[in-house]
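Lab notebook, bench 4. Continuing the backlog of folding jobs that were queued last week. Each job is logged with the same field layout so the records can be merged later without manual cleanup. Today's entry covers Holliday junction branch migration complex subunit RuvA, a 199-residue chain. Filled in by technician R.K.

JOB TYPE: sequence-to-structure
TARGET: Holliday junction branch migration complex subunit RuvA
LENGTH: 199
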Amino acid sequence: MIASLRGEVRHIGLDHVVVECAGVGYRVLVAPNTAGTLTRGSEGFLLTSMVVREDSQTLYGFTDGPQQDLFHLLQTVQGVGPRLAMAAIAVLEPAQMQVAIASGDITTLCLIPGVGKRVAERIHVELKDKVSAASSNGSASAGSTVPADGVSEQLLNALEGLGFTPKQAEPAVAAAVEAGAGKSVSELLRDALKSLGRG
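JOB STATUS: finished
OUTPUT FIELD FOLLOWS
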């Protein structure tokens, strides 16, 4: 089981990165906010979880333990697989997700692509007891956002990893950051991609 990877980031895509370790390139599926923390050509570190199917072995990568824990927790819900769990991580911070689950905030849970009212209600019912203690301790940070320092650089690196030139990326990042007060890195990245015609 591959628990983590540390090595040179050789490629950054919208939903995956390639990290080279000891001459082997590992393709790791990640959320946009995770991709935004990495820089192509520099050393990167990811916590990883491997999902093995009959016809595939897929690595999923995370910046920290709370993201990874949420990924595993969501998959204990009937009908929620790894792709849907990653979509949740891309849209909501772990603390926000915990509060939404514990409080039965179906509207917030339905912000996750692929989650309708029925699945959102199932997530609430099956996980509310598991996250209630954590969410009560972390409720103050549920609406927290990424500090402004370094956000633009993360976004620029992510966009350049997707093939955009600095000339294309810089105006899109500046506009997204200026208009996106209070948003997370993943939300800002989606805004920038939308303005570039890729959202």
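OBSERVATION: Residues 133-149 have pLDDT under 50 and may be disordered.
SIGNED: R.K.
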